[in-house]
């Protein structure tokens, strides 16, 4: 072999060895690589009751109005850097000052922005469990420590325990989803007030489902500068497909959270749809009342299904526990009959549970029929 060929061979060997040693993933934080992403398997179904969506769409005339607005402006231009008109309208709607409101691309973006400015390595974040998993996931991504506080034996909030642990740890952040997803339980407003009084750590209340409960803690903002409230247009307002949310807090906190907000975060189409939804609140509120009535009817009927234990709910969904039937088998059986619900068996303490959104009357009927068939399959051993 010639000298040049030998040198070339050695160079190729060196490059191969170097490539074998390269591991770009080692530059990703170990805390991130150790956790699973928040995800949901895509499934199609005639009756979709798995994401707590509103079964009633915006009126056709309202959607046309939003489309006309969108067609009348150039799409090549950015939206407003700050959606001032939307913020002003939200202030009037929610009963809070405009400089204490931040609009976002869904409330999830605002949860992230809030945690970005409050959580660093070792920051303790108090999170009841089980609850919406995004809080703990983002906390861990940012290097913080999620301190879990178990719900009570009936999956109810234990306010005294929350206060005790928050006080003992002097926790900088406490996050409460109220009504809670996926259990449907509510933390009373007076208990939120006590939490805020017991230390200056932020108390974050995610009110994604508050319209279905008839309770909001927004009036407490005036006397609790450490209170933060998150809301969304995805549930009661029927705009899950357009991603609009907002944060309410003291102007000082909003100013700091705004530093983590991405530029032009709310597109002009979503802004127009949100403004239209606010215009149509009386129509949307009637839909909320309809969903609440359907929820109570669904609960009443589920209580009478043998082997099923529904938990009381103040949201637009119901958590149900199966006494004997395998939840995954029931999930698949219900799905084969055209109904998609949510399998929550991976959540702590919910190993025997499914969650079902409150749908329209025909959708609820279809689910109840599919559930009864699924339970009969188990009883009689047929598929």
Write up what this structure looks like.
By secondary structure, the chain is an alpha/beta fold. It folds into 2 domains: 47-55 and 282-378, Aspartate Aminotransferase, domain 1; 60-279, 3-Layer(aba) Sandwich (Aspartate Aminotransferase, domain 2). 40% of the residues lie in helices and 15% in strands. It has 13 helices and 13 strands. It has helices spanning 3-21, 30-33, 60-71, 84-94, 107-116, 134-141, 159-169, 189-197, 251-257, 268-279, 281-302, 327-336, 361-380; strands at 47-48, 101-104, 124-129, 145-150, 173-177, 202-206, 227-232, 245-248, 308-310, 317-322, 339-340, 342-343, 353-357. It has a 7-stranded mixed β-sheet with strand order 2-8-7-6-5-3-4, with helices on both faces. A 4-stranded antiparallel β-sheet has the order 9-10-13-12, covered by helices on one side. Helix 6 links the parallel strand 3 and strand 4 (145-150). The longest helix is centred in the C-terminal third of the chain and has 22 residues, at 281-302. The protein is globular.
